[in-house]
Amino acid sequence: MNSGYNMDNAPEPEQLTVPSRVHIVPMGFEDERISQPPIEANADKVVLLKNKSDKQTPAFLEAAEQELREEVGTVTDKTCNIFSLYDSIGSIAEIIGAHDDDEVYVNLATGSKVTAIGGMIACMATNGIPYYVKAADYGHPEEPTPPEHPYARGVKQTVELPHYHIDKPSVDETAILEFLVENDGEATKGKLIDYAENNDLEFLTSTTSSSDTGKYRRLESKILGPLRKRECVAVHDVGRNKVVKLTQRGQNTYRAFAYQLQFKQQSRATAHK
Predict the structure, then answer these.
(1) Which residues 6+ apart lie within 8 Å of 161 measured at CB?
(2) Is 230 helix (H, G, I), strand (E, B) or coil?
(3) Alpha-carbon span 85 to 87, nearest angstrom
(4) Nearest-5° angle of CA 131, CA 135, CA 141?
(5) What is the pLDDT of residue 3?
């Protein structure tokens, strides 16, 4: 029977896109807790977070990395200060953001205590999935640094951890923090408006209002209000001017979320190609 349907003219089926399984693994003094979870989970990619100041790598750590490179399709490195909370947050969140369409898992058991805290915060601010690897044996003798043996031995269980979403600063808020950092920590509201206009920040480009009063209101409601609530900035009267000053918390917040500006620049460059 001729159904009247020409298979030659049939539309091509849509290609199914399957997210990759990406594991972020800080490189502390561990071995099996580094290598086994990604291998057992059939990870498609592993990003090893290495301490930028480490000059010596223990043999057991090299062996764990080599095992990953043999068993996992793609293994890459990223360096940061794993003993800096904000560098850890920023580095881990940046990796998660670069794999926005993938399933990204973060090992909280293998780095420093700081990377564990930073990794959890990064997951809470993004779509990362934190997990902890229980060791079969936590006992180890006192050793020099770097040690000759891993701090823990064997893998007893890998446990995915619950986490709750936290609001990170918007791209515009982060851009304003960056401007303050680059201007010795303070600027008048007028300079912030000029910077926002020259750099097409969304809080101004998304409105049809062109009056100065409207711009100042949006700066207050969309940027300075939220940043003050986070205690990232303070506003002071200096003569007839309102001067916005960066706080220590604002500096730390910028360090943790500056990666958002890099992604914005990359998106713009891709759009203009």
Answers:
(1) 108, 120, 130, 131, 132
(2) coil
(3) 6
(4) 135
(5) 47
SS3 of residue 27 by DSSP: coil
Q: Is 31 exposed, middle or buried (0-12, 13-18, 19+ CB in 10 A)?
A: buried
Domain boundaries, the chain: 21-160, 171-271
Least confident stretch, 80-94, 141-155, 189-203, 247-261: 141-155
171-271 carries CATH number 3.40.50.300: no
Percent above pLDDT 70 for the chain: 88
The model's pTM: 0.77
Number of C-beta neighbours around residue 57 at 10 A: 12
Pairwise CA distance, residues 72 & 46, whole Å: 7
CATH class for the region spanning 21-160: alpha beta
Order the strands of the 45-51 sheet from edge to edge.
Answer: 74-80, 45-51, 21-26, 103-107, 129-137, 153-160
Return the structure tokens found at 270. 């891709």
The helix (run of H) or strand (run of E) holding residue 94 is helix 85-98
User: Per-residue pLDDT tens for 191-226?
Assistant: 999 999 999 999 998 877 778 899 999 999 999 999
Token reading at 191: 């300079």
23 vs 269, which has greater pLDDT? 23
* 60 close to 83: Cβ distance less than 8 angstroms: no
pLDDT 10s digits, 116-125: 999 999 999 9
Block residue for tokens 């003569």: 239
Q: Tell me the residue ranges of DSSP E strands in the chain.
A: 21-26, 45-51, 74-80, 103-107, 129-137, 153-160, 186-188, 233-238, 241-246
Split at pLDDT 50, 70, 90, the class of 12 is low
